[in-house]
Each structure stands twice: as C-alpha cells, then as structure tokens.
Amino acid sequence: MKISSLLFILSFPLISACCTPVEPDPGNNDPTIDETLTKKTTATEAEAIKTVYETFYKPANAVTGDPMPYYNEADQTFYIYFLLGRFSGYPGGGIYVTKTKDFAKFVPLNTPSPQVLTGKAGEWDINIGTGDCIKKDNNYHFFYTVFTSPSTVSKATLANDLSAGEWYKKPSFKIQPPAFCKTSEFRDPDVYWDETRNKYVMLVGGQTTDNRAVLVRYQSDDLNNWEEIQSLYKAVDNNNPKLYEFATDTDLPECAEVFKLGDKWYMIFSRINRDNHRKTFYRIANSPDGPWEICRDENGSHETFDGLWLYAAKTSFDGQHRYLSGWASTGQDKQPNINELTWGGNLITHKLIQQPGGKLYPAIPDALNAKFSKAVDFKDIKQKGSVVKNNNIFTLSGNSEVVFNRNTSSLKIEMKIDASEAEKGFGIGFGAYEDQEESYKLIFDMTSNNQYNCPALFMYQNNKELNFTPLIVSNNKQFDVKIIIEKQVCVMYVNGNVAFTNHISTMEQNPWMIFSDSGAVKFSDIKIFK
User: Based on C-alpha coordinates, what's the Rg of the chain?
Assistant: First the structure.
C-alpha cells in the first residue's frame, strides 16, 4: 500500500454498443502502413509517469495505487477511490477519486479529485493508506489506514450526495491493533454487511506477534461502535483449513475483502511476499467464518485472477456484475533490491464470471470490448521460418514468426489460435523491431512441464521470465484471444476465462508479431480495431 493524491469528476457519456465492424484487409498495400522495422524509442518509466492513460486509467504526473472501488446506486456510477503515488504538482498524498460508468471511460481524467487527504506535518494522520467506502441510510462512511505508531483505522463521513459532498475526518474514531498483532502491521480496513450476523463486519489485515497472517474482525450495528470478534488466521494446514482459517502462505493479507456471490462467500487478498506469486488471490467458503479454501476442480486450482501486474485488487458490484480493480506497475521488471515491481501504476479492471462450483473467471468488461470498433488495416511485413499464408490464416511450423506493422494508437487485437498440433512455445510478441531479438513474448505453454507444474501463460524477454499466470486449456486446444493495448500496457483475455496483464515498455509504436518454436500453430481471424 502507499499514499495518494488527485481529484475531479463531471459527466459520463455512456459507450454505445457498436455495430458490426468492417472487416479489415491484412494484405492491404495502403501507403499509410509503416513497413519499417526500425526501433522507435518509447518513454522511460519516469517519462511514462507523466502520461495520462484513458483506458487503463492513470492520472497525469502520478500513479494509481490500491484501488478502492465503490458503486453508488444514487447516480449509477463506479467511484474509483485510490491512493495517489509518485506524484508531482498535487497538494499532497491521500485518497483521490475518478469515476466511471463502465470501466471504459473515466472522469475526471487528467487530474483526479482529492477526497481524504493526508494530514499536514505534525498531525496524527500524516500518512494515509488504503480503506473502504460503505453507505448506511443517507450517510457514507470511509474507513482508512493511518500509518502512525501503532497503525490505526480511522474514518471520514459524508452526508447525502456522494458526487458533490465533502468528507469530514473523525479524528476521535480510532481502532488500533489488538495485543496479539504487531503494531506496525495493521492495515486496509474493509467493511461489508454480514447477513449471517445481521451486522456490519470490518476486516483489517495484520500479522501476529508470532508472524502469522491474520484478518482481525470487528462487528457493528451502526458503523460507529465496533466490537472485536473471532479473527481469521492463516491455516496451520492449507490442505485442511479449519473454521476461522484461510489457506495461504502470505506473510500478510493486503487489501483484503469479503463478499457473497450467489450461495458462496469469497475472500480476496493480495499476497505481500516478494516472489513470483506476489499477486491478488481469492478463497471460497460456505460461511464468512470459513473454512476458507482454494477453489479446485478437475482442471486444477483456481486461486488468482492474473499475473504480477494485477496487485492490490478489490471488487465492486452494480447489482448485476462484479468487477475486480487493481493496479499494474509502471515498472518493467522487479526491483533487484526488494524483488518486487515498482509500487503503483495503471488501473486494470476485469469482469468476474462465477462458474458452477464457485470458481471465478476474469473476463473483458463489455464496454471495454465495445470501445474499439473501427477496423484497422494491417500487413505482415516480415516472415521467418516455415510460414504458410492463406488469406487471413497463418500456419507456423517449427521456429517461425510473422511480423506485422507498427500501430500508433490504442487498439484491440483479436485472433483465434489453433494449437491442436503444438504443446508450447507459441504466442504473440511486442516490441518486434529490427531482428525481433529483444521482443517481449507472451508465450502459451499447454504442458505442466514448467516450474509451476501447470499449463501457463508466460511473458519472456531475452530468455528471462518476467510474468506468468495459469492457463486453462480446452480439450480441442483452441484459443479465442482479445488483447487491449494502450501505450505501454496490454491486457490479454483468453477464452473468456484467463486474463494476463503486462507492462511492455517497447510495445508502443513498434511492430508486433506471432510466433512458434515447435509443432504447428494456426493463427486465424486476425483483426485490429481502434
């Protein structure tokens, strides 16, 4: 978690459903298509932080951190509260907000509206962290972290109109760590209505004095007076968690949340450990008291939604759909001194689809899919190895690749992949300039012969693994792929059940490609929309 700063909001034009797009011509000899392979230099991380992102929201001169999404029924709008990080030109850190109707457009865009700001030097709330918004009657309550010693949960309130109101801090409201918790590890309050208790329940992530991850819990009738109830602890045996336990190996559950969907209860948290599994996880239970288990089925475990570039994610619900919003780091690789990505970046949101048995699949939000509707001509400008082209179908065998021309705007790429005669080592690459040696490759591995013992999507560059997420492989080994690209961020959705977010610094305005390393792979129905 971190600190934030920004604010603003106005009107929200809804994205209309787009009509059937015109089919692009991949063989078009339009002279506007750039067929060069020279590298176009893209922004450094410091330069990228200054940039505004419209689709994967990021304000100017700052980064989005720890989203705290809230759906406001009064104006049917999602309020995306977040911590402002790495900012310049803002009055200070704290919680800021942008709004959206559909996760495809955001208002305000350049400069977000400040909401609950960090206190001035010498004040008790000098450092504000992640929290949660909830409404009772005509009053809104915002619970948040204050990084004092000890760490504290405090709150602000707002009456009647969330869109135009002003939050008032309640410095007299303070919840501090219980005796069994480390005073420095008590953060990220989340409040929900618990129908089994007929009360509000607050979760606060922590770590016990004997280094056990814990979610401290409190209950209340009025959101003002709270009493501690039984905490939820890291399970002693993750294969058989007991009541009031959750299966995990995290040192501390960051940005935790509990909600009910259908007849199942879900716990979402981000795993703070600095390794290849520093991601957003979920657990499932039949009761908010647990036992909280990993969701498993015949295809294996379902416990994450994305790779390393989706962190500190929490959900919002509009009465029909539940959406998961987290941040994607602006960093290209983990920082060597702390083995984690740079804190804060772009807002990434997936629509969650509940499956029989309770597992949750990440899918592209409808409005984001519809946002890109104008067909764009494209051309294959280089082929290597064994490539057979038949109209808009490319069959690649062995070590082969097809390079396509560079794109100069945000876009959506669609394609189908038939991998029935392959097992691994095929996919899509970006930053495919010059000889393609420095390309960032999104690689499909349908085997379990890797370090994670499961089919997976990987991002590699120069033979270095930068990211991975488990892949669900159908019996026919067919993949329907959609990729949304904006500047240095791309999110790939596969078969409506897998999401893979990546930051690729050389992707912007450079060529891209499809490739195979072995076997035969067919890429078809390739389309580009902007």
Answer: 23
